[in-house]
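Q: Could you fold this chain for me?
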Amino acid sequence: MSLSRTPEPELMEEMEQARAYSLADFEEPHNRFIELIKEKFPGEQFDRLVLDLGCGTADICIRFANAFPQMRMHAIDGAEAMLHFARINIDAIRLHEQVRLFKRQLPVKGLPKEHYSALISNSLLHHLAEPMVLWNSIKQFAESGAPIFVMDLRRPDSESDADNLTDHYAKNEPEVLKHDFRNSLLAAYTVDEVKAQLQQAGLERLRVESSGDRHLIVYGHY
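A: Sure. Below is the predicted structure, expressed as structure tokens.
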């Protein structure tokens, strides 16, 4: 019998929690995020306006900008604590003209552009009690043919597997991150669950794959 999903809060609103995320070492998974985008969309320059759903402290925004220097991005997050550190991180390397941050929670209203040339999202899906708001937001904001790339945690088969992954990947992190990482694993969706979500949303053209020992990716053109 597979492990049932245990939801967690949708927003990370505690300043201590956001500070820990801002200081955490996400070098491996976030670099992998960029590598996979390049692999799945070879030759794509992302030189028009991109939308990042659930930007957190903007680490992915910064890595994306380094990988695609011509890009411009609108990035949203619902937690003011996360955006506080996102603004600091963006301003520190003077990316504020390329990356604009917006406090928005899904479902999103009131963005300055109706449709975007590409949509990305990292580690947002597992926070959502109703995952369809992510897929419906992609349908709402994506231009026809827009590249879509979503990466998220994948729920393990058992709580002992969650414990082992936490010990392996978060053993040197603060307790708040260890706690959040394990809870996030338990709140994550499986590949089959995401396939069912995409079918319900009418997004069957997007592909879903496992990636490594703890992630899944969703990608394709809208």
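A (continued): Strands lie at 49-53, 72-77, 99-103, 118-122, 147-153, 207-211, 215-221.
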